[in-house]
Design a protein that fits this description.
Layout lengths: L15 H36 L4 H20 L6 H18 L13 H9 L3 H22 L6 H49 L4 E5 L5 E6 L23 H14 L1 E6 L9 E7 L5 E7 L6 H38 L1 H19 L8 H31 L7 E5 H11 L1 H7 L2 E6 L4 E6 H17 L6 E9 L2 E8 L6 H4 L12 H4 L6 H11 L3 E7 L3 E8 L2 E4 L20 E4 L6
Parallel strand pairs: 7-9
Antiparallel strand pairs: 1-2, 1-5, 3-4, 4-5, 6-8, 7-14, 8-13, 9-10, 10-12, 11-12
Helix pairs in contact: 1-2, 1-6, 2-3, 3-4, 3-5, 4-5, 4-6, 8-10, 9-10, 10-16, 11-13, 13-16
C-alpha cells in the first residue's frame, strides 16, 4: 500500500483544518455559549423564586457570570480571537466569585469557567488553564479588597448548588462537543487521505518517490505491463538490469545537480523492453521518478538527444556561474591591490588642504579658504568611501584576515564614540553610550569592533533629525556580547529591510540615499559574520531604528578597574550600566 500522503492547499484556499473548524465549531460552540447563559440565568431565577430578594451584589454575581455566554453567542470568535473571549470569561468569573465572598464563597467554582469554555470552544487548553488560574487569583484578591460577605445559610447552599450544577453541566457538554469535534476531524481527515490515495492511484504510469538516502518512500499510479508496484518495493535499482545501473546513477547525479533528468532503462522482468524514467528533485531533497513505457513513435535516439540537451544546459549554467564568480574575484583582487595607489595621493590632497585650512603659511582670501574647506571635506568623504570599498573587496576576495587579540571592549567602543562626537555636534543630535561598568575582556579584531560602532553610529547620525538622540549600548546576552545602536531617526520601511546589509543597497527616498554609499551596514554584517555572529535590524517609519550586532567573543571579566582618564569616585554598582554622555566640543 502507498504511504499516506498529505495535501498541499492552494494559495488563498482554506486548509483542511480551517474548513473543519468553520463547519464543526460554529453551531455547537454557539449553542454551548447560549446554554451557559441560560443555565446561569435560570439558576438566578430559581434562587430569586426561592429566597426573594438576594441582595444587589449576589444577584449581580450570577448576572455577570452569564455575560460571557451572551457575548460568545453574538460574537462567535474562532482562531486567534478565542483568547479574547476567554479573557472576558476570566474577568466575569473573577467578578462573580469576588461578589460572593471570593475563593471561600459558593461561586468559587465559576472561576473554572475559562477552562471549560476552552474545551467547548476549541481553544488551546493551556490558554484555558492560564485564564482559570488568573480568575481564581483575581477573584480572591478582589474579595479581600472589597470585603463583601458570602451568602450564608440556605442561600449559601443554594448558591453553591447553583455554581456546581452550572459548572458540571457545562463541563459535561464541553467534553461531548470536544469528543464530537475530534471524531469528525479524524473521519474527514481519513476521507481526505483516501481521496488523495485514489487520485495518486489514477496516475498514468508508475510514480516512485525516493527519499534523500535513496530508499523507497512510496509507489503510486497504474502498473505497467513489464513492471508493477511490487517490483519497486526495494527501489528502482534492483528492478533494472545491471547494464543500466551506471546510467541510473548518472541520471540521479544530474537530477540532484540540475533538478531534472531522463534516462532509458530496461526492466529485469523484460530486458527486451524499454522504460522512460523522468526524474525530478522534490522539495525535501528526495527524487520523484515517473516511469512509462517507450511508445512506438518514440526512439531511443530522440530521448538521448533530450538527455544530452539537459546535460548541456547544466554544464552551461555551471560554466556561466564559474565565470561570474571568477570575474567577481578578479574585481575584488584588483581593488584590494590598489589600496596603496589610491590612498597615497588622497593623503597628500587631504594633508595640503588641511595646511591651507589652518593657514599654516599665512592668511588666504575668504574664497580660497572656502575652497580649502571643500577640498578637505571631499577628500575625507572619498577616503571613507575608498576604505569601505577596499574592506568589502578584501572580504569578497577572502583576503580579509581578522587580527584577534584580547582587550577591554569598552575601550574600542569609547574610542569610536569620541570619534563621532564632532559629527553628532554638527548634526545637533544627542549621542550617549551605555557600557558595562566593569572591564569586559573579549577576543576579537579591535579595529573591526571599532569600525562596527563607527559605521552604525555614523549611519544613525545621518538619518536622525536635529534634536534627536542616538544611544550606543554594550551588553552581555547569554554567552555573547551585543552592540545595540538605537536612534530616533526617520526609520526604514519594512519593504527595504530585507535588502539592507548587501553591498551598495540603500533605503528611503532619493535624497536619503544620497547621504551614504550603502556600504556601512554591509561591512558591519560582514565583520559580525567573520566573528561568528550576526546583525539584526528593527525599524518602523517615523519611529527610529535599532541595529543589534551579536558577537560570540566573550572571554572573561577583567578585574574591576577604572580606565585611565575616566576616573569616577562614585562608580555605579556592578549590576548597572555605565552611561557615557559625550560632551559638546569646547568643554
Amino acid at each position: 500500500m502507498p504511504p499516506k500522503p498529505t495535501a498541499s492547499p492552494s494559495a488563498g484556499a482554506p486548509t483542511l483544518s480551517e474548513g473543519l473548524t468553520a463547519r464543526l465549531d460554529a453551531a455547537p460552540s454557539a449553542l454551548w455559549s447560549a446554554g451557559w447563559s441560560v443555565l446561569t440565568l435560570s439558576a438566578l431565577g430559581l434562587l430569586l423564586a426561592l429566597f426573594g430578594d438576594l441582595g444587589l451584589s449576589w444577584t449581580a454575581a450570577l448576572g455577570i457570570a452569564a455575560l460571557p455566554g451572551l457575548v460568545g453567542l453574538a460574537w462567535r470568535p474562532r482562531g486567534e480571537a478565542l483568547p479574547g473571549l476567554l479573557a472576558l470569561w476570566c474577568l466575569c468569573a473573577a467578578a462573580a466569585a469576588a461578589l460572593t465572598g471570593g475563593l471561600s464563597g459558593p461561586l468559587a467554582l465559576i472561576c473554572l469557567g475559562p477552562l471549560v469554555a476552552a474545551v467547548a470552544l476549541g481553544a488551546l487548553l493551556m490558554d484555558g488553564v492560564v485564564f482559570a488560574a488568573l480568575a481564581l487569583g483575581l477573584g480572591g484578591l478582589a474579595a479581600i479588597l472589597w470585603r463583601l460577605p458570602a451568602p450564608g445559610g440556605a442561600q449559601g447552599l443554594g448558591f453553591s448548588a447553583a455554581g456546581a450544577c452550572i459548572l458540571l453541566i457545562a463541563a459535561a457538554t464541553a467534553v461531548l462537543i470536544r469528543h464530537r469535534r475530534l471524531a469528525a476531524s479524524e473521519s474527514e481527515g481519513a476521507a481526505e487521505i483516501v481521496r488523495l490515495q485514489t487520485l495518486l492511484g489514477d496516475i498514468p504510469g508508475l510514480a516512485l518517490l525516493m527519499d534523500a538516502s535513496g530508499g523507497t518512500a512510496g509507489v503510486f499510479g497504474q502498473p505497467l505491463s513489464m513492471l508493477d508496484h511490487d517490483d519497486l518495493r526495494q527501489g528502482l535499482a534492483p528492478a533494472i538490469i545491471a547494464q543500466d545501473q551506471a546510467r541510473l546513477g548518472a541520471a540521479l547525479a544530474l537530477t540532484k545537480a540540475g533538478g531534472a533528468a531522463e534516462a532509458i532503462l530496461h526492466p529485469v522482468s523484460r530486458p527486451d523492453r524499454q522504460l522512460i524514467a523522468s526524474l525530478r528533485l522534490t522539495g525535501d531533497s528526495g527524487v520523484m521518478v515517473l516511469l512509462r513505457e517507450l511508445s512506438p513513435g518514440e526512439s531511443a535516439a530522440s530521448l538521448g538527444e533530450r538527455v544530452a540537451e539537459l546535460e548541456s544546459a547544466r554544464i552551461s549554467a555551471e560554466t556561466d556561474r564559474a565565470r561570474t564568480e571568477e570575474a567577481l574575484r578578479a574585481r575584488s583582487r584588483f581593488l584590494a591591490n590598489m589600496s596603496h595607489e589610491l590612498r597615497t595621493p588622497l593623503n597628500a590632497i587631504m594633508g595640503f588642504s588641511d595646511i591651507m585650512r589652518v593657514r599654516m603659511f599665512g592668511e588666504l582670501s575668504p574664497k580660497y579658504g572656502e575652497y580649502a574647506e571643500l577640498i578637505h571635506e571631499s577628500g575625507r568623504h572619498l577616503m571613507d568611501l575608498i576604505s569601505d570599498v577596499l574592506d568589502m573587496s578584501k572580504i569578497d576576495a577572502d583576503k580579509f584576515t581578522l587580527s584577534l587579540e584580547r582587550f577591554d571592549v569598552r575601550e574600542a567602543m569609547g574610542a569610536a564614540l569620541r570619534l563621532t562626537r564632532v559629527q553628532a555636534d554638527e548634526a545637533g543630535v544627542k549621542l550617549r553610550g551605555v557600557l558595562p561598568p566593569e572591564p569586559l575582556e573579549v577576543e576579537a579584531d579591535k579595529r573591526a569592533i571599532k569600525q562596527i560602532v563607527l559605521n552604525l553610529v555614523s549611519n544613525a547620525l545621518k538619518f536622525t533629525p536635529r534634536g534627536g538622540a542616538v544611544t550606543v549600548t554594550g551588553q552581555i546576552i547569554a554567552d555573547s556580547f551585543e552592540i545595540v545602536v538605537t536612534d530616533t531617526g526617520i526609520g526604514i520601511d519594512q519593504a527595504d529591510l530585507e535588502r539592507l546589509g548587501r553591498p551598495f543597497e540603500q533605503a528611503g527616498a532619493a535624497q536619503d540615499r544620497a547621504r551614504g554609499t550603502g556600504l556601512g551596514l554591509s561591512l558591519v554584517k560582514a565583520f559580525a559574520q567573520l566573528h561568528g555572529g550576526d546583525m539584526n535590524i528593527e525599524s518602523q517609519l517615523g519611529e527610529g531604528t535599532s541595529v543589534t550586532v551579536r558577537l560570540p567573543v566573550l572571554v572573561a571579566a577583567l578585574p574591576a578597574s577604572t580606565p585611565e582618564g575616566e576616573a569616577d569616585p562614585a562608580a555605579p554598582p556592578a549590576h548597572t550600566a555605565q552611561v557615557i554622555q559625550m560632551p559638546p566640543r569646547g568643554e
